[in-house]
Structures are given as C-alpha cells and as structure tokens.
Amino acid sequence: MKNIFQLLLLILLGFQSKAQDVVSFNSIDQVLHYAEKNAAILKISNEQVALSKYQTLISKINAFNPRVNTTASATDNLQLPTNYLPAQIFGGVPGTFKETQFGQQYVSTIAITPQIDLINIPAWQKIKTSKINENYAVTTTLLVNKNLFETIATAYYNIVSIQKQIEILHANYSNTKKIEKIVSNKQKEGLARQQDLNQATANVLQIEDKETQLANVLLQQNNILKTACDIPIITVLEISDTQENATENTVLDVTNTLLSQQSKLLQEVSNQELKSFNSSFFPTLSLVGNWIYQDNSNAGFFNPNSNTFQASYVGLRLNYALPDASKYLQKRNLKTSAAIAKENAKHNLLQENNQNQQLKLEYQKAVDSYVINQKIAALKIDTYTKNLEIYHQDLISLDNLMISFNDKLNAELNLQVIATNISYLTTKINLNNTIQ
C-alpha cells in the first residue's frame, strides 16, 4: 500500500512539473524579442496604426462622396379616390355632376438617384487630417514601444543585479562562517569573549537576512517583467545573463526625438482640424441624376399589358448650410486647442533635449564611478585579507576585522550594482537611438 501511494505521488508531481511552463532568457535582446511578439500593449498599438491607415483610405474615397439612393415600391390601391366632374362633359344634364375614378389600382415604381461631389472642400481637408493622424499613430506606437522596452530593461537589469548580489553574498557567507568558527574556537580556548562570538554570529545572520530580502525583491522584479512581457504569472522565469557588463568608457550620444515628433504632429492635427472646420463654411457642388421607372395596371403587378413610362434627369446641386452660433463656439474651442498644442510642442522639445542630456550624463557618471569604486573594492579586499591574517596572530580585534569585512562586502556589492547600471544605461541609450 505504501509503494502504491508513493507511485501516485510521483505521478501527480510529474503532471504538475509538465504543466508548469518555463521561459529562459540569456540576454536583454531575447527578452525584447519575446515582448515584441507577445506584449498586448504593442498589439493594441499596431491595431490603432492599422485603423488610422484605414481611416485615411476612407477619407480619400469620401473626397467625392459617391452615393446612390435606390427605392422600389409596389402599391395596390384597394379603392381609388372618387372625383365629381360636370355631367355635361359626358353629355349629361348641365348643372349636375358625375362620379368618376382616376388612376390605376396597381402601381410599381423603381427610382435610382446617383450623386457625386465635384467640389467638397471639407472632405479634401479631412484627407490631410487623416494622413497627419496616421503619422501621429505611428509615432505614438514607436513611443509606446520605447517606453515598454525601457520598463523591461529596468526590470531585467534589476533581476541581473540582484542575482549577482546574491552570488556575492553567498560567496562571502562562507567567509563569515569561517570567522565564526575561528572566534568560536578562540572562545573555547579562553582567547575570545562571548561578545566576540555573538558579533561573529550576528554577522552571519545579517548576510542570511540580506539574501532573504534580496530573494523577495527578486520575485517582485520577476513579476514586473512578466507583466510587461505578458508572461503568465505561474510561468517559471529563468534569467542567466551571459553578457559582460559594458563598463568601458565609451562616448555615447542620445538622439531620440520621438516626444518632440509626437508633439509636433499633435500640433499639426490641431491646426488641420481648425482648417477643416473653417472649410465647412464653404458650399458643396454635386453632380446629381435621377431615373424613374413606373408600371401602372388595373390587372395586376407587372402585367404584360400595363402602361409603363420612364423619366430621368441630370444636373448640378449646390448645398450650403447657414452657420449657427454653436459653430462659432466650436471654432473658438479649436483655436484654443491649437494654441495649447503649440505651447506643449515647445515645452516637450525642451523636455526631450533635457532628458537626452540627462541620460548621457547619468551614463558618464556611472562609468566614472565604476572606475573609482573598482579601485576602492580592490583596496577593501586587500585590507580585509591582511586583517584576517593578522587576526590569526591576535594582532587586531574582532571589531576591526568585522569592519574591514563589511567594508569589503559593501564595496563588492556597490561595484556590481554600478556595473549592471552601466549595462542598463547603455541598453537604454541604444533603445533611444534605434527606436525612431
């Protein structure tokens, strides 16, 4: 019975492991490629671009606004109207009237009225508006793409940084255990105080706590990355960055102009909408036509002996709608929107230049800081190594040894954070320069 239970447990665990998907990434490029195919926000943006292109096509067709109104009717006059005519017309007594009925009982009619606009200035202006809106949708999609990729890069490099920090803590954990063992042996020999042992043990626990905290932050960053890439939350995410950190001092320039392009296009949209509205005060000239076919009979619908006739005409029609007070208010609103869009475009251009310069300065600051902290880490490691040697000789106190150890640990962690940050900033600059 026990063997059967163990077998069933193994089968259930096997099904569970098969049901849990695993997604692995070895570089930021792989993550971005995955997001490009699966991120819902990018799919939505692409649909909006497709819709804007379709709207441009429809506006071109509506420039002539071709339309054909077709009507058909079949009327059975169950009782024809009665009219009274002077009887003397029919040879009757003057001064009297005779009842007569005019018309046909069965009347069938088909009417076709085609119309096409020859001069439609508002429709021509809408073509320009639709084209600008299409360019605006494309630029907005690129901006959404850039912002999403920056968010993904932030989460990805946070994960890489945390993983490497955990590796550093794990490597130093063995050192703290060794120090704890040395102090414990000295305490047993009466060469160290209980307080020293407590301090060494507390240092071990502090590193364990740091690892635990970083592990929790790592899970949070994993969830952020899953959300950005539309990866199911139950999917196991494996990230093992195999690329070297870009720590060399390279001069990078930031040339992204998407924000100013978007603002400029939005300004053009506002101006064009105002032009389109002003054109609505102009009349529209249309070519119209009409063709009518009518079948009249007292015997039935479409009788072979029925009376039929046709009529048609062709001409020009001029349509003009007198503006009311609401149109002038709408015109004022459009003028205000255009003025606001103009000021926003100026502000966003300045903001974009500042952001580009700020990103460039952040990168240069990180590279300079890495060079200095690399030297600091080397000095802190050397100090700790020498202090550990002389501690065995009882030439320094445990306090000084612990201080040098923590300084070394913090220097290694800080150096790793800076190195990963340089890789992140390099990726961010590349995204800004390539997504244009």
Walk me through the structure.
Residues 340-369 form a coiled coil. One of its GO terms (molecular function) is efflux transmembrane transporter activity. InterPro entries: OMP_efflux (IPR003423), TolC-like (IPR051906). The chain is α+β, with helices and mostly antiparallel strands and 436 residues long. The chain has two domains: 20-65 and 120-283 and 320-434, Outer membrane efflux proteins (OEP) (Up-down Bundle), CATH 1.20.1600.10; 68-116 and 288-317. It is built from eight helices and eight strands, in the order H-E-H-H-E-E-E-E-H-H-E-H-E-E-H-H. It has helices at residues 2-19, 28-38, 40-61, 121-188, 194-229, 258-279, 325-392, 398-434; strands at residues 22-25, 67-76, 82-86, 97-101, 106-119, 236-239, 284-297, 307-319. 23% of the residues are buried.
Defining key terms:
TolC family protein; alpha+beta; Outer membrane efflux proteins (OEP); 65% helix; 4-stranded antiparallel sheet; two-stranded parallel sheet
Summary of the model, kept short:
The protein is 65% helix and 16% strand.
Topology:
Blueprint: H1 2-19, E1 22-25, H2 28-38, H3 40-61, E2 67-76, E3 82-86, E4 97-101, E5 106-119, H4 121-188, H5 194-229, E6 236-239, H6 258-279, E7 284-297, E8 307-319, H7 325-392, H8 398-434
Parallel strand pairs: 1-6
Antiparallel strand pairs: 2-5, 3-4, 5-7, 7-8
Helix pairs in contact: 2-4, 3-4, 4-5, 4-6, 4-8, 6-7, 7-8
How many strand elements? 8
How much of the residues is beta strand, in percent? 15-25%
The third-level CATH topology of the largest domain is Outer membrane efflux proteins (OEP)
Write out the CATH superfamily name of the largest domain.
Outer membrane efflux proteins (OEP)
By secondary-structure content and strand pairing, the structural class works out as alpha+beta
> What coarse outline follows from CA principal-axis ratios?
elongated
CATH architecture of the largest domain: Up-down Bundle
Q: Which blocks of ≥5 consecutive residues have pLDDT under 50?
A: 1-19
Mean pLDDT: 85
Strand line-up in the sheet with most strands: 2-5-7-8
Helical proportion, percent range: 55-70%
Q: What are the secondary-structure elements, in order, as H or E?
A: HEHHEEEEHHEHEEHH
CATH first level of the largest domain: Mainly Alpha
Q: Give the tally of structural domains.
A: 2
Kindly, what is the distance between the CA atoms of the first and last residues, rounded to a whole number of angstroms? 67 Å
Largest sheet: 4 strands, antiparallel
Over the alpha carbons, how many angstroms does the gyration radius reach?
42 Å
Continuous helix count: 8
